Amino acid sequence: MEVSSLLSLPEGLHVKWIEPQGADLSIGVVSLLPSSCCPLCSQASSQVHSQYQRTLRDVPCGGRPVVLRLSVRKFFCRNPDCSRKIFTERLPPFVQPYAQVTTRLFEAVQAIGLATSGELGTRLAGRIGMHTSPTTILRRIMALAPCFASQVSCLGIDDWGRLGISPRAQVWNDSCGLNHPHHY
Ligand SMILES: [Zn+2]
Q: How close is the Cα of 52 to the center of ligand 1, in Å?
């Protein structure tokens, strides 16, 4: 089995090297997809302009935090009607443009946040090899649609304070034993 399959990397991404770096596992990954589509005109291009490295946090491997060193290419857009002459290859849904973590790590931290809270979630995530913070967990939860965010089991007033949200905000949380909105 290829290492890229073992790490459940999407098709087209290949592992070039793996190197322990302190407590982390650093993994060099390259994209071997033959072409990429211009985000503006959607036309495919295989003409590489250059490449650069993105550093992304990924889900842990064997309990160790993982850092991906992902080589990303830039392509020429050859569509004469398109104003974008050079574009960076997109690798969704594995990673979103400009993201510093993979989508699967984003979602894992989000799930931990929904099941716990900022402080508890941070401690749990650390135990299983995910670097995060109470503020990050709250931001992941707030990125959800309101109907999903209502699944949060317990959210302390300190958690909201980290996000700069007024302590006078109304907090509904039946699962914490509150039957009506409370003002803090
Ligand atoms: Zn284009």
A: 20
